[in-house]
Amino acid sequence: MATSQIETVSTGVDKAKLALSVVLLLAALAGFYFLAKQGAMVQWSVLLGGLVLAVGVFLVSESGKRFIAFCRDSYREVKKVVWPTRKEAVQMTMYVFGFVVVMALFLWLTDKTLEWVFYDLILGWRK
């Protein structure tokens, strides 16, 4: 039986780190727009510096550490995937294209048959 756990921010210090991260992000965005008269170089420097600081503060928080662990686990799982060879990928693509063509022909024939039945046989309309 699987138990579901609700993950919450546990400590006040961790909450403060997350709040600081959000404040740094907002300050970086505000600085980018308020420093428009200073030139593009200053604007982008403030934005990128603020983003780097915000991400840095986030990554040292408990949520950031869990995020890093999740990324590592995901990367390990991706390395376990058995990717198809080029031949297999081309083969499967051709199967899909073939199926699409067959379905298109089937739907076209169904449409034309229904059109013939309704307009020519039942209603007697000629085009």
UniProtKB/TrEMBL annotation:
GO MF annotation, one: protein transmembrane transporter activity
Pfam families, A to Z: SecE
Domain of life from the UniProt record: Bacteria
GO cellular component, one term: plasma membrane
Membrane-spanning residues: 18-36, 42-60, 89-109
Biological process (GO), any one: protein transport by the Sec complex
Keywords: Cell membrane, Membrane, Protein transport, Translocation, Transmembrane, Transmembrane helix, Transport
InterPro entries per record: SecE_bac, SecE_sf, Translocase_SecE/Sec61-g
Record localization: Membrane
Self-association and partners: Component of the Sec protein translocase complex. Heterotrimer consisting of SecY, SecE and SecG subunits. The heterotrimers can form oligomers, although 1 heterotrimer is thought to be able to translocate proteins. Interacts with the ribosome. Interacts with SecDF, and other proteins may be involved. Interacts with SecA.
Function according to Swiss-Prot or TrEMBL: Essential subunit of the Sec protein translocation channel SecYEG. Clamps together the 2 halves of SecY. May contact the channel plug during translocation.
Annotated family: Belongs to the SecE/SEC61-gamma family.
The protein's name in its UniProt record: Protein translocase subunit SecE
